[in-house]
What does this fold into?
Amino acid sequence: MKAIYIPLNKVETGQTCIVQDLKATGTQRRRMLDLGFIKDTEVKVMRRSPLGDPTAYLIRDTIIALRKEEASKILVKVNS
Amino acid sequence: MHEENKISSSDIFRDDIVTSIYNRAKEISEAVVNAPKQKTLDWNNKLDDILTSKWTGFPIMLLILCFIFWLTIVGANIPSAMLSRILFWIEDKLTEIFIFFDAPSWLHGILVLGMYRTGAWVVSVMLPPMAIFFPCFTLLEDFGYLPRVAFNLDRLFKKAGTHGKQALTMAMGFGCNAAGVVACRIIDSPRERLIATLTNNFVPCNGRFPTLIALSMILIGATVHSPFVSFLTSGIVILLVLSGIAVTFIVSYILSKTILKGTPSTFNLELPPYRRPQIGKVIVRSIFDRTLFVLGRAVSVALPAGAITWLVANIMIGDASILNHISGFLDPFGIAIGLDGVIILAFILGLPANEIVLPIIFMSYLSKGAMIELDTIEEMRNVFISNDWTWLTCLNVMLFSLFHFPCGTTLWTIRKETQSLKWTVASFIIPTIVAIIVCFSTTRIVYWFI
Amino acid sequence: MGLTCSSCKKKSIVDLYHVEKTSSNQVIVALAGNPNTGKSTIFNELTGLKQHTGNWPGKTVTNAKGFYTRKDKEFILVDLPGTYSLFANSVEEEVARDFICFAKPDATIVVVDATCLERNLNLALQVMEITDNVILCVNLLDEAEKKHIQIDLKKLSNELGIPVVGTVARNRKGLEVLMDTVYNVCTKKIIPKPKPMIYPEAIETELQKILSMIEPLVPSGFNPRWIALRLLDGDTDILDKITHYTDCKGACNHA
It folds into this structure.
């Protein structure tokens, strides 16, 4: 199956994906890298807040909540 | 400007440097850690499924909050009464000592009736509820539930230009606004932290609940504590709390668009694994760290204020006390916003602790030289009625109490946390302006229709 | 919050914590680690300061300083804000990094969570690039045991090149060993030799270029390789900071 890169916020709950690239720059980019969103890292979409945002992601054994604006800057490849 | 969108060379180096470090960390941990492949996150997951789901998340949150409230209010009644009795017994003994030593009555007035009585009042009203609320809150915190609350509510706060963690500082503010301000440390962005600090006071603290409950009973014209009455008064108090929360959102929104403008910073929230709290340690710690600490500050603000209140009520200029003069002076302003001079002055003198506002009001109306408490709702209503109160006055007092400037302890805490005089002053002015506007509008609207 | 340096009006990092050695028997130890690793529990247990620690990532504020004595030395323990890294993205990270780098503590303890070692090692590796005197404290071993996670601490120590101590701070397990290890590092009985981070070729080449330029200029006590790395990833403030802390050394650096 052909691999497509999509923003993390578009990944459905329960799915796992692999980080490919970050659209953020500067401080925001650094912050995301520090949280562990580097290339080839596995991320699992755990759940969405009852109000729709933020979403909880499992990355490197930690659950981090990201808002849609930030998650959209992380490009991933979904495991098919 | 285009620099922000272009990935710079240092960004690329940064990427590689961070990646190298992560890879090395992975290498090392793979070599030394022996872990089962199936991560045992299951029960954590299941718990989160319940606590943050669309259908059960919010109801559970509300239930927990209501339970803690209920426990605090009901559970504190008896200990408060007991403490009151003990401390006022001590006051009587002190008075005896003063009489024995033939001490001048003004000295007795300042030290015993002013300072000691105010201090005793604050302690007996504040200590029991805090000793219940803080441990409950700390248990939830240790358990790991609080980040989930921020997770559930963040969207609302995002719309108001702030952070989901503000929900927690507000929840803490229900116990005590000073503690709520300290709790603002959990918000990383200075801008958002400041907004949470400045608006914390719109959530009524434990000290204001007795006042609000008593006034709502008077408002509905009740004299007995029947279940129906309890139901109604709870309803009114809940409505007030909800308005406090609504105003918090509105003012946060306004602040984030005006004086505290800024783009929402990078959202920062980790949901840690649930942990069994060490109940014993938590209770001890929260009593010492939070309860006694806040109480200590409150008492140190209350003592001098008590002295001042006594002086103001007992020093005569002409044929009236300073208290009467000042409340007379404030009368026009007070009446304009639906209160009166005595009430305004009581709030001002009640700066150290919200609990003493009603006692000061009674002291003024009954021309007593010291703060008193009335035993029955009936008595209270009679005093109010004979001082020209209407249901509107009662409502306005409740609204003013809800929205006015923070108490002395909270202001002191804001100063310490923000390290800025400017923002401390702002935290005084902003709520006061809101309170004045609300009372004024309510009064005008009612007159319009009646 | 802190005193300002009289000659250049900038805040002194040491003064931010009001850390001063008043006698030669005193030793400064920094306590670093990710948020929520039980770092503050360790701080409380060692110093007896009753600061509340909730299960709430990121609550420490820049105010925690405590004391304990071990054998003949008095230890000033400074609890740094919990951070995920030292790349100075936020005030907390900047404070933590600046303290380790400029206040030159005699030892730095990095606390990691045994249940997510990989993520936590990130910070430890960064600290090891700034200073050699690092001790790794692997905490929350009881939580790890519940999850059937085992860690070979000896092997970890070999891999990293620094002493590693396992603890369960909640129960005070391992804290005596920790204090002894800290004592030994501060008195030079143990000399940690952190294995250097090797970067991909492209970076190493650039690093060499920068190093050859700055090496003669870097004041003593600073790791030139670390400074070169910071310049490479775009931190321009670092040069100002170094100038400040070295030029004004007499007036505001007490450590």
Notes: Chain A has two helices and six strands. The helical segments of chain A are 26-35, 68-71.
